[in-house]
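Standup notes, protein team

Yesterday: finished cleaning the Rheinheimera lutimaris set.
Today: RNA chaperone ProQ structure.
Blockers: none.

Input for RNA chaperone ProQ:
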Amino acid sequence: MTTPTEQHVKATSVKDVLAYLSSQFPACFSLTGEAKPLKIGIFQDLAQRLEQDTTVSKTQLRQALRVYTSSWRYLEATKVGVARVDLDGVTGVVIDEAQAEHALKTLEESKARAAEKRKAKIAEAKAKNPQPTAVDKPGYKKTANKKPAGSSKGTKVNQKPVKPEAEQQAKPAVQLQPVAAEHVVVGGKVLLKLGQSPMLATVLEVSKDDVTVQLGSGMVIKTRQDSLYLA
């Protein structure tokens, strides 16, 4: 009678069963590397060898063998001319063409199913976390260039140029009065006569008879004091 310490721990998953079979029958089963095609009827041999072993049940053995023989590693090893092995690694009959073709077809179908599952998982992940698209970005509309009302191609529209507000306010009085020298100070307002229309300006600098002024449009002009008038 075996003691508790001599008893094997009962396998609880297919992975545990395969690991146990690999440790008990290393010449037949393997977890890595190239697999060996199994002898037909290997289940009966396993059931007989492990009849008194409580580590695995017959149901677990069937499940483990189904998983092992449907793995890509096992199917890739099932080729024409390769000999099958028993539990002790002794070679027996070789795989024929029909068996090899069946293994290849099973392998291709298995890989196709795996690829479809990967695609489905990727699609599901994208659905849960959609990436922002161009629609989500704020749009910027360009303002259309509006044509003046009443205008058409080939028709000229007489429009007076709009003067800056400061220049509009600089309409001359009935009679311009020259500005006295003592009133020409930095920051002071004066009228500068350019052409026919005097314009309002601000004195920036005074240097004897030369005065630098800035128009309402921002233009800076250097002129003589006698060209300035009272604002």
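Follow-up from PR in the comments: The chain has two domains: 14-126, 168-230.
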